[in-house]
Amino acid sequence: MVVAGALAVGTPAALLTLPAAPVAAQQGQLDQAVAALRGISTMKADFTQTDRRGQTLSGVLTLKRPGKIRFEYGKGADMLVVSNGKSLYMVDYEVKQVQRWPIGSSPLGALLDPNRDVKRFGKLVPAGNDSVVGVEVRDPKRPEFGVITLIFVKNASAPGGLQLASWVALDSQNGRTTVRLSNQRYGVAVADSAFSFQDPRRSSGRR
Are strands 176-186 and 42-51 parallel, antiparallel or unpaired? Predict the structure, then answer.
């Protein structure tokens, strides 16, 4: 399921096998990760998405807070994943279909939904590397929202001193995919029109 990839192969083993840091240190790193997310006003990045079958797609991600994101896929994938701040859409131009979800009802809600309390539902995942911070976000009362593990690396030029490098997500249908980012650019000018799309059910074109 492509949208699981944009939302969402398993959590890296290095993040699962190491002992936890002291509680105070965990809280400090979690606070830093939350500040890093909230510090992103706009961001553009190249992305590579690999699903559980090993299929890899790439393209350009555009993010604008609160709640807006666009995954523009490259050649070989005639589709688009986009959020306008309220709803997340997967647009398949090949079969002329559009699927829609509220932004809070997917793993990406941790990244997009301004009402999702990452600090409340997030926990630090031991990384074993002082330059890496992993945060797993899940709402135990809403398992249908899925789980997302956000991976940050320390970078003084990124908001909050942490750069979002990748995420691993598990959606409500147990679809797992990893998304890796590169060439992150912050504070770029992004028009709201970037988060609209041409409905293929009404037209044969796209934008």
Answer: antiparallel
Q: How does the average pLDDT of the chain come out, rounded?
A: 82
Half-sphere exposure of 175 (CA within 13 A, CB side): 19
To the nearest 10°, report the CA torsion of 8, 184, 44, 37: 60
Do 7 and 108 touch, CB atoms closer than 8 A? Answer: yes
Longest dimension (CA), the chain: 56
> How confident is the model over 52-66, as a mean pLDDT?
91
Q: What share of the chain is helix, strand, coil (3-state, %, to 5)?
A: 20, 40, 40
Give the model's confidence band at 105: pLDDT under 50 very low, under 70 low, under 90 confident, else very high: confident
Q: In the beta sheet, which residues pair with residue 63?
A: 43, 69
79-84: strand order across its sheet: 97-102, 87-92, 79-84, 68-73, 56-64, 42-51, 176-186, 162-170, 147-154, 132-137, 122-125
Q: Is the dihedral of CA 170, 67, 181, 62 positive or negative?
A: positive
How far is Cα 199 from Cα 194, in angstroms, rounded to an integer?
A: 14
Q: Using the 8-state DSSP alphabet, how is residue 24 labeled?
A: H
Task: Report which of residues 155 and 34 the model is more confident about.
Answer: 155
Given a contact cutoff of 8 angstroms between Cβ atoms, the answer to whether 60 and 179 are in contact is no
Q: pTM of the predicted model, to two decimals?
A: 0.80
